[in-house]
Design a protein that fits this description.
The complex is a heterodimer of chains A (418) and B (255). Chain A has 418 residues and is mainly beta. Chain A has a domain at 1-233: Single-stranded right-handed beta-helix, Pectin lyase-like (Pectate Lyase C-like, 3 Solenoid). Chain A has a 24-stranded parallel beta sheet that branches. Chain A has a 13-stranded parallel beta sheet with strand order 3-6-9-12-14-16-19-22-25-28-31-34-37, with no helix packed on it. Chain B has 255 residues and is an all-alpha fold. In chain B, 86% of the residues lie in helices and 0% in strands. Chain B is globular and about 60 Å long. Chain B has helices at 2-13, 16-35, 39-68, 70-77, 83-113, 117-143, 147-175, 182-189, 193-205, 207-210, 215-223, 225-252. Chain B has 12 helices and no strands. Chain B has one domain (2-252). In chain B, helix 1 packs across helix 5 and helix 2 runs parallel beside helix 5 (83-113). Classes of the chains: A mainly beta (418), B mainly alpha (255). Chain A binds chain B through residues 255-257, 259, 279-282, 301-304, 323-324, 326-327, 346, 372-373, 375-390, and chain B through 38, 40-41, 44, 47-48, 51-52, 162-164, 166-167, 169-170, 173-174, 177, 181-182, 185-186, 189, 195, 198-199, 202, 206-218.
Chain lengths: 418, 255
């Protein structure tokens, strides 16, 4: 919150500072019975750094092009209804634009253009906040933006079909964006990032989206904190990025044949700390992930907690809790290039004679049956069968098929309190 | 018939082995919840007990009990009582004793410490398996005159249902892994009551794992309410069929 207010303060100072030379900024009221009945003419009449105060009413407008610094503010949540026209509602083509306090609805689906409720095409120091966006093709769409704040927006759609669905928050080619306290649901991707660097995403809720709750690619040095990604078609995908920090997020109930709590693909030097992965088909799927630190996370009741493919190197999986997962670690390699240490594994059944809190016997978290189901998926039906349990036990004592070096030498006896 | 079942139940309740069974289930059922802080893990242990130990103990005991009560049965049959009533009361008495033990030993702690759908399915499956294996044991012991042979057959049947069948299934899946065998496997599992019970439970407990890949096919079947109904029906068939067959042999048998 402090960060948000700091940025707003900075933006305010910039707005005020620039406003000084043009004498006094005016407030232009918009609404039925006011000087301007509609928003578009008011924008045209306004000078840079004026405020448009939009009164509560329903405005049937779209393609409102804002090409000067303006504060567009709704009073009592006025509605702007695009009536399913294939057009954007706000198009921002200037720096220092604030859009605040609107209900934006019914931007039509287009197969040619990505129409959005708020579209930012090149601009910096802007804010989009406290809006409700209902049934729009894309919600908030940013391209070539810098230093933007998107906060407290409630973005809801009811799309059924992935091909005709847009993203709730879509950011492309941007820098230093802060996305906070938004809620995104019913879209294709909740939050979509491509080529976005040095940004923060925190306290957002993204659920019931058709594809990913969060989807980002080619975006470096970004931070994700305290977000909740639940019940999304394919969970969360993070690809081709460096130095990502993901902390204290919740990934839950992502169920499906190709559904992951968190899909990591070609990711390096990131930190994944203190997250919770609950009841996903796969908690984390890591493919080509390098030098990540996966620490103090909680994996609970996932089908597979951690699927670490053979092309992952030098990751540190330490101090995590693995509770009641069907499979704890799965890999497709016979070798191990990652470090597993001091985790709590609920399937571990060793003892602790020296009372140091860690089991005296090392633990191999990969089990044979996971390998079998990897080869013949229909064998998953034999789970917990006595026959399989015996096979597994003997394999654990004399590892033949499972990677022998993939071992936690200090398995913890009791779960960490996270 | 009711009077007779009542006598048999009274005899069984005083039986030391039944008491031992109750004690064993209680120690496991209550103990596991006291020792284990995670109820999911406790459920897993109880599932193994319900799927492995319960069928074994139930089957062995029912067989021994039948063979030991042969004189009693002969005595009863001299009375004007229908043979079908005798076998029915035998089944009813045995079932009551085992169901009560299971409910007290495993059902009660589950309901108290982990009230959930998983527990519910575990209890239902455990009860069903008890009935199935009492019926199978009665069938075998009526069919096979010799005590030692009867025991051997019963043990073999247990080994078959508990291990061998699953081993064969996995072997089958390996051999035909290149083909879409999900439906075939699904049908094959229905031929083993322990498998049906196990799958019904894991569809609840390990739901997230079962969603992966071909797990979806099984989930569609066993996970839906229709599938649960089908698997319960088949479990019912699994105990009604051996019982009816046992009754047929019993009513014609030269004692």
């Amino acid at each position: 919150m402090i960060v948000v207010s700091k940025k707003i303060a900075a933006a305010l100072i910039i707005v005020l500072g620039c406003a000084l030379p043009c004498a006094f900024a005016k407030i232009l009221p918009v609404g039925p019975g006011e000087r301007f009945a509609e928003i578009t003419p008011a924008v045209a009449a306004a000078h840079a750094f004026d405020t448009l105060l939009v009164k509560k009413a329903t405005y049937r407008e779209h393609t409102i092009i804002i090409n000067k610094p303006l504060w567009v503010m709704g009073e009592g949540m006025p509605v702007i209804d695009a009536r399913n026209k294939e057009a954007d509602i706000f198009i921002i083509m200037s720096d220092s634009v604030f859009i605040e306090g609107f209900v934006l609805s019914n931007v039509g689906v287009s197969y040619l253009n990505e129409y959005a409720a708020v579209k930012v095409r090149k601009g910096r120091n802007g804010v989009v906040r406290n809006n409700t966006i209902k049934d729009c093709y894309f919600g908030i769409y940013l391209e070539y933006a810098r230093d933007y704040i998107i906060s407290n927006n409630d973005i809801v759609a009811h799309t059924k079909d992935e091909s005709s669905a847009g993203n709730a928050i879509h950011v492309w080619k941007a820098n230093n964006i802060e996305i906070a306290y938004n809620s995104a649901t019913g879209h294709r991707d909740g939050i979509y990032f491509e080529f976005v660097d040095d940004s923060k995403i925190h306290h957002n809720v993204s659920f019931n989206n058709l594809r990913y709750g969060l989807h980002f690619m080619f975006s470096n040095r970004d931070g994700y904190f305290f977000n909740e990604f639940t019940d999304n078609g394919a969970g969360v995908a993070v690809m081709f990025s460096k130095q990502i920090r993901m902390e204290e997020n919740l990934f839950a109930n992502n169920w499906g044949t190709a559904s992951y709590g968190l899909l990591l693909k070609e990711i390096s030097d990131g930190e994944i700390h203190k997250n919770r992965f609950i009841q996903n088909t796969i908690g984390i799927l890591a493919e080509g992930a390098n030098r990540l630190s996966i620490q103090r996370n909680q994996f609970t009741q996932n089908g597979t907690a951690l699927d670490m493919k053979g092309n992952c190197l030098d990751n540190k999986v330490t101090h995590n809790n693995f509770l009641a997962n069907t499979f704890e670690v799965v890999t497709n390699s016979k070798y191990n290039n990652n470090e597993y240490n001091s985790n709590y594994w609920s399937l571990y059944s060793g003892y602790d004679l020296d009372r140091d809190g860690f089991g005296d016997l090392p633990y191999r978290p990969v089990n044979l049956f996971a390998k079998i189901t990897n080869e013949i998926p229909s064998a998953s039906i034999m789970l917990h069968s006595f026959f399989v349990n015996i096979l597994e036990l003997s394999e654990r004592i004399f590892p033949e098929i499972i990677p022998e070096e993939l071992v936690d030498k200090k398995p913890r006896m009791r779960p960490y309190i996270l | 018939m009711w009077k007779l079942s009542y006598y048999i139940l009274g005899d069984l309740i005083k039986n030391r082995i039944i008491l031992g069974y109750l004690l064993f289930l209680s120690v496991v059922g209550w103990g596991v919840f006291f020792l284990e802080s995670q109820p999911e893990k406790a459920l897993l242990v109880l599932m193994q007990v319900a799927l492995m130990a319960v069928p074994l103990i139930v089957m062995v005991f029912a067989t021994i009990y039948y063979y030991n009560s042969r004189e009693f049965i002969l005595l009863i049959l001299t009375q004007p009582i229908a043979r079908s009533a005798v076998i029915k009361s035998f089944f009813a008495g045995l079932s009551c004793a085992f169901i009560l033990s299971f409910l007290i030993g495993i059902g009660l702690p589950l309901v108290l410490f982990y009230p959930s759908m998983e527990s519910f399915y575990l209890i239902i499956s455990g009860l069903m398996l008890s009935l199935v294996f009492i019926a199978i044991a009665l069938y075998v012991s009526i069919k096979v005159q010799d005590k030692a042979r009867g025991m051997g057959v019963v043990l073999l049947l247990w080994v078959f249902f508990a291990f061998l069948y699953d081993g064969f299934l996995i072997f089958f899946m390996y051999q035909f892994s290149d083909y879409p065998i999900e439906e075939g496997v699904l049908v094959l599992t229905l031929f083993n009551p322990i498998d049906i019970a196990r799958i019904t439970i894991i569809m609840k407990t390990e739901a997230s794992a079962m969603m992966g890949l071909s797990g979806a096919v099984f989930r569609e079947f066993f996970g839906s309410s229709k599938g649960v109904l089908v698997s319960l029906t088949i479990l019912v068939i699994w105990w009604v069929l051996p019982f009816v067959l046992a009754g047929k042999i019993f009513s014609k048998k030269d004692m």
